[in-house]
Amino acid sequence: MLIFKALHILSMFAVVTMEIGAEFLFAFAISRHDVRGLAAIHRILERARLGPISIIVFVAGVAFGLLTVATGGLDFFEGWLIAAYVLVAAILVGGGLLWPRKLLPLGAKAVEAEAGQRPV
Q1: Taking the CA of residue 81 as centre, how many other CA atoms within 13 Å lie in the half-sphere pointing to its CB?
Q2: What's the CA gap between 56 and 64, in Å, rounded?
Q3: Contact 86, 37 (CB under 8 A)
Q4: What is the tens place of the pLDDT at every residue in 80-109?
Q5: For the segment 39-78, what is each residue's pLDDT rounded down to a tens digit?
Q6: Rounded to an integer, what distance in angstroms lies between the CA atom of residue 22 and that of residue 16?
Q7: How far apart are the C-alpha atoms of 80 and 75, rounded to whole Å?
């Protein structure tokens, strides 16, 4: 049980670091109206392939959490676990709406603007 708990905590910490870090950088560049900065961040994140990696680590973290509950003698329907299930669903829905539909196209447009293919 302890190994599953440790792996759950490590993987969820890694996901939060990757996702919130990337979104923070995007938000910082957008708030400064920095097209070159936004383009640079977009190129770096595309090369790093953080999107697929963070999805895999997130799914692994959820699996480790469920294994922790199963092997730790906990009840799957405790209130705090139901709240966690709702948060996971909200993350999946919210992440699927904001990041790929709004921020990634905006970053791609910034790359095009920096290359002179579209107006700033």
Answers
A1: 12
A2: 12
A3: no
A4: 999 999 998 888 887 777 777 777 888 888
A5: 999 898 888 888 888 889 999 999 999 999 999 989 999 9
A6: 10
A7: 10
Domain ranges of the chain: 2-114
- Helix ranges, 1-119 (H): 2-31, 35-48, 50-71, 79-98, 104-114
CB 113 within 8 A of CB 119: yes
CB 61 within 8 A of CB 15: yes
| 99: its two tokens | 């990041």
Backbone angles phi, psi at 76, to 5 degrees: -65, -15
Q: What single DSSP character describes residue 34?
A: -
The first and second tokens of residue 35, run together, are: 């097209």
118 DSSP assignment: S
